Amino acid sequence: MPRPEAASGLSSPVRSALRHMAQNYAEPITLKDLAGLTKLSPYQIIRAFRRELGITPHAWLIRHRVTLGTRLLKRGESIATVAFEVGFVDQTHFTRHFKRLHGETPARFLTSGQAALAPRALTSARGSIRACP
């Protein structure tokens, strides 16, 4: 997943949308928001993301949130807290996407020992987590 600041080969609208989503990941973000920001229609944004990144803006945002959530889990945050802090409406929504991307639930991930391999340099959430690498 490219970082917005490292996405030199991407078009300006895609870079702007990525930067906006990376900075505001914990808030609801709609295609209409991205359309206003990029001056493209929602359909043009989706097509640009698929062409340049191979995924939709929504898929990028979900992956970004799960990646940040994984870091928080590794720090020892509770699943419910992580879900809220990275922008999911509830723990179930976070768990469903986490399992789809990681192949196991957050609870199993924590008990499997993978969480112990984590970096501890992350700060608390809701806007203060660094963007995904």
First and last CA, distance? 7 Å
* CATH H-level homologous superfamily name of the largest domain: Homeodomain-like
> What is the typical, i.e. mean, pLDDT?
85
Which outline best applies? Answer: elongated
Which regions contain 5 or more consecutive residues with pLDDT less than 50? 118-133
Number of domains as seen in the coordinates = 2
Structural class, from secondary structure content?
A: mainly alpha
What share of the residues lie within helices? 55-70%
Beta-strand fraction estimate: under 5%
List keywords for this structure.
133 residues, elongated, disordered C terminus, 0% strand, 2 domains, Arc Repressor Mutant, subunit A, mainly alpha
Overall description:
This protein folds into two domains: 11-57, Arc Repressor Mutant, subunit A; 60-117, Homeodomain-like (Arc Repressor Mutant, subunit A, Orthogonal Bundle), CATH 1.10.10.60. Helix content is 57%, strand content 0%. It contains seven helices and no strands. Mean pLDDT is 85; it is low at 118-133.
Q: What is the topological layout?
A:
Elements: H1 12-23, H2 31-38, H3 42-53, H4 57-75, H5 79-85, H6 91-102, H7 106-111
Short description:
The chain is an all-alpha fold and 133 residues long. 57% of the residues lie in helices and 0% in strands.
